[in-house]
Amino acid sequence: MQYIGQVDRSLLRDRALSSIREAIVVGDLAPGEAIRDVDLAERLGLSRTPVREALARLTDEGLVESKPHSYTRVTPLNGDAVRDAHAVVQAMHALAARLAVPRLGAAELAAMRAANSDFEAAIARGDVGAALAADDEFHGVAVRASGNFAVVATIERYTPLVRRLERLRFASPVGCHSVAMHEEIVAACAEGDAELAGRLVERNWATLGDLLGESG
Questions:
Q1: Considering the entire predicted model, what is its pTM?
Q2: pLDDT tens sequence across 1-28
Q3: Residues 6+ apart with CB under 8 A from 99
Q4: Are the C-beta atoms of residues 92 and 151 closer than 8 Å to each other?
Q5: Within a 10 A sphere around the Cβ of 90, how many other Cβ atoms?
Q6: 110-154 pLDDT tens trace
Q7: Which end of the chain, C or N, has fewer beta carbons within 10 A?
Q8: Strand partners of residue 64
Q9: For the purposes of burial, counting CB atoms within 10 Å of the CB of 123, is it exposed (0-12), middle (13-18) or buried (19 or more)?
């Protein structure tokens, strides 16, 4: 029995954190929905301690908000945390594009075009999950090529907060508008116009801000 020992509590917390974060991002836990640690613990098959630790982390991330002796709930889509995260993610993607353009070669441009084709197909068949994955890959080309670890880390840190907005956009008829926006971004990158590429990326991400206004 030497290989069987007590499970590290941090592993249980990380399991709870991953599961609850995903439930919030995909909408299983809706914006503004009240959260009870005892209910989540039962659903996850865990004790309340790792669930409470996970909720504390999600509060730090801005996906959960609480008021002592009053409530713990999923952050509403029109909350300040979501607005702030959107502004940061938008700015970081625009910066990534400006930094990446001089570094982009034929392979990277081809990857962006392929991702946009996948995105268009996913939108056409109403597959929001696949559209998100393709959109991530499209923008990820520039993010990776930017060579700036702080940009990469900041985007990874705050993207979960705006993911719910992306799901709303790609599930709506206006989601297809991003296809043409992506094509313009690729064209600017191919021409080596870093400033134009940055502005176009910023405009693309600004469409999520429109959803913030609608949900307010």
A1: 0.81
A2: 344 344 466 788 889 999 999 899 888 8
A3: 145, 146, 147, 148, 151, 194
A4: yes
A5: 20
A6: 999 999 999 999 999 999 999 999 999 999 999 999 999 999 999
A7: N
A8: 74
A9: buried
Give the 3-state secondary structure of residue 6. coil
**The amino acid at 177:** H
- CA–CA distance, 167 with 123 (Å, rounded to integer): 11
Q: What are phi and psi of 73, to 5 degrees?
A: -150, 165
Dist CA 54 CA 37 (whole Å): 10
* Letter string b/e over residues 127-165, b meaning 16 or more CB atoms within 10 A of that residue's CB: ebebbbbbbebbbbbbbebbeeeebbebbeebbbbbbbb
Report the length, in residues, of the chain: 216
Other residues' Cβ atoms within 10 Å of the Cβ of residue 214: 10
pLDDT in tens, 143-199: 999 999 999 999 999 998 898 889 888 988 888 999 999 999 999 999 999 999 999
Domains of the chain: 9-74 (1.10.10.10), 80-215 (1.20.120.530)
Do 194 and 202 contact (CB within 8 A), yes or no? no
Helix (H) or strand (E) run with residue 74 in it: strand 71-74
d(CA 97, CA 141): 9
The burial class, CB within 10 Å (0-12 / 13-18 / 19+), for 18 is exposed
